[in-house]
Amino acid sequence: AGSWAMKWDGILAQLDRRYRETSSERARQHYEAFLRAIACSTCDGTRLRPESRAVVVGGKGVHEVTSMTVGQAFAYIGGLALGGLDMWLNQLFGFGLGTWKHGGPDHATLKPAASSKVIAYPKPDGVISFDRLTNVAFSATHHEEDQKVHLTLKNPDIPIAVNLPQWAEPAQRYCPAGVYEVVAEDGKPPRFQINHQNCVHCKTCDIKDPSQNINWVVPQGGEGPNYPNM
User: Using CA atoms, how far apart are residues 35 and 21, in angstroms rounded to an integer?
Assistant: First the structure.
């Protein structure tokens, strides 16, 4: 009898090797019962060091760029190149590639509600996505309740008489802070309500209102959103 020394890689390495080398589908299914893919909590499965993951170009990290298809990578690199060209033309010669336009004001592009599909948005999960009023709280916006309203209507009848039947009053949806509401009470006609104290001063309403009926004016000094963590 003799003895010999051999290197033992461990059961996990043995299972992994046999799984990769076997040509038997039955054996492969047997080994799969012992294998499970778990993303690394440090690199999230990218197999990159933290310093490599920290490199971001054009809003994307190295691992995101390398996982793109050829078409996606071409569009991404082309966008970076055009952005750089536009920047240097502006810096050196005072003009750039210009801004692409859709041939008219933004508010004129809104389609009637009757020809649009209702979008069923998923409910916020409270972890990554939040409801609008919670997001308003994050902005720390503040307006005195008794100050003069800084969101005015040229014609107070238009939201209900025109915007509601034609566009389902889009101010309810495009405002990120829930400033505008159509309130329907039992036995009463709908009414348009402005919660000016929620306003985060994005001026979307001034731009997007299809009737151009909303006029955003400067509120009393120093009030509005206050993003303490920016």
Answer: 15
- CB burial of 57-82 (b: ≥16 within 10 Å; e: otherwise) equals eeeebebbbeeeeeeeeeebeeeeee
Specify whether the backbone of 58 is left (phi greater than 0), alpha (psi in -120 to 50) or beta: left
Quote the pLDDT of residue 73: 83
171 DSSP assignment:
H
pLDDT higher for 184 or 4? 184
**How is residue 217 written in tokens?**
């004016």
Residues 6+ apart with CB under 8 A from 88: none
**Which residue type, as a one-letter code, is found at position 219?**
P
- pTM metric for this prediction: 0.56
In this predicted structure, the answer to whether residue 173 has a pLDDT above a threshold of 80 is yes
- State in Å, rounded, how far the first CA of the chain is from the last one: 75
Q: How far apart are CA 139 and CA 132, in angstroms?
A: 11
Per DSSP, the three-state class of 99 is coil
Whole-angstrom Cα distance, residue 55 to residue 50? 9
> Nearest CA to 217 among 118, 126, 135, 149?
149
Which helix (H) or strand (E) covers residue 15, if one does?
helix 11-21
Task: Count Cβ atoms below 10 Å from residue 169 Cβ, excluding itself.
Answer: 22
